[in-house]
């Protein structure tokens, strides 16, 4: 009778490579005192044998850290996600640490080395994702991760939480069209982010419904931040045949756009209608209060945190892919075209 073939162990991999067990263990634990060539050999062997570190069946509540990784910090958008993550983590008596990627959507090697050496209970990636090699390295070490507002389609085995950006773009543009606007501009987010492209698709779909052509000259790529809203707003509002309405793509870009309109002597909403996106707390306090699309950012952060904690503690999450609904919030920055 043939017995079950045992899985790979650190010792068997070390023997195969002619290395010591501590050397292989150092690579697994993200230690820096291993020669790069040796590290590459060990990683290749771990992948070849599909080595996976066994995580304890039940990590005790109150242990471990969640590494919350943003592609960029510094706006009310990120603060809302942090609020949701922190609230859900606190309920599980788990602490949160923050990392920032300087606007990049893929973590650098040094982040991966630090994460492996730590290691956290799990990782939450916001508007970022891992390369396949990075994914495998975390997987081999039993470190789960969940993606929030992914920049692209995550691997099938990776949990993700987002919102219905296509519908948000559709509702924002339908609102402006229903008010009689036909020259509607859009300031998008970065084109390499899935949420940006989905909002643009919703913007175009709303035009198609009404049989209204989109003027390509009125669609400009921004970065979701206030400076882009101001700079692109000045460009758009200085056109000879300027738009009468702008879907600003984010509340922060809408703030910049409002400043541009004021500088050019245009009144909102009498001369220009403006719609934001996110419904950050400041949206109801600006003048005029901003019509926007509510994106449940805090709820997204809380849901992703709960999914991650479930996976890390050996529980099967209720869902692995979650897309929360968006909602148009009408305030005073939009009006019928005169």
TrEMBL record:
Keywords: DNA-binding, Transcription, Transcription regulation
Signal peptide feature range: none
Transmembrane residue ranges: none
Alphabetized SUPFAM superfamilies for the sequence: lambda repressor-like DNA-binding domains, Periplasmic binding protein-like I
Domain HTH lacI-type stretches: 8-62
Annotated protein name in UniProt: LacI family DNA-binding transcriptional regulator
Entry's Gene Ontology molecular function annotations: DNA binding
């Amino acid at each position: 009778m043939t017995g079950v073939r045992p899985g790979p162990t650190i010792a068997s991999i070390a023997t195969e490579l002619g290395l010591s067990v501590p050397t292989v263990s150092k690579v697994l634990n993200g230690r820096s005192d291993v020669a790069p060539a040796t590290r590459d050999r060990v990683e290749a062997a771990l992948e070849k044998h599909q080595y996976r570190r066994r995580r304890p069946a039940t990590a005790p509540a109150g242990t471990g850290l969640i590494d919350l990784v943003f592609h960029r910090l510094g706006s009310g958008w990120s603060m809302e996600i942090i609020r949701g993550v922190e609230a859900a983590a606190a309920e599980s008596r788990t602490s949160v640490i923050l990392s920032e990627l300087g606007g990049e959507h893929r973590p650098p090697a040094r982040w991966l080395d630090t994460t492996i050496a730590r290691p956290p209970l799990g990782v939450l990636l916001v508007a970022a994702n891992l390369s396949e090699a990075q994914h495998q390295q975390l997987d081999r070490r039993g470190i789960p991760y969940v993606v929030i507002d992914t920049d692209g389609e995550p691997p099938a085995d990776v949990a993700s939480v987002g919102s219905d950006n296509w519908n948000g773009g559709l509702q924002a543009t339908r609102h402006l069209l229903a008010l009689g606007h036909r020259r509607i501009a859009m300031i998008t987010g970065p084109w390499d982010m899935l949420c940006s492209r989905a909002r643009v698709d919703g913007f175009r779909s709303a035009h198609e419904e009404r049989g209204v052509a989109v003027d390509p000259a009125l669609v400009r790529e921004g970065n979701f931040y206030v400076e882009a809203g101001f700079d692109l707003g000045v460009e758009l509002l200085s056109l000879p045949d300027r738009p009468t309405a702008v879907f600003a793509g984010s509340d922060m870009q809408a703030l910049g756009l409002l400043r541009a309109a004021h500088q050019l002597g245009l009144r909102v909403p009498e001369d220009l209608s403006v719609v934001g996106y996110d419904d950050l707390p400041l949206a109801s306090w600006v003048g005029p209060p901003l019509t926007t699309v509510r994106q449940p950012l805090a709820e997204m952060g809380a849901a992703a945190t709960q999914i991650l904690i479930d996976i890390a503690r050996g529980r099967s999450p209720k869902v692995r892919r979650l897309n929360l609904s968006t909602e148009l919030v009408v305030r005073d920055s939009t009006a019928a075209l005169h």
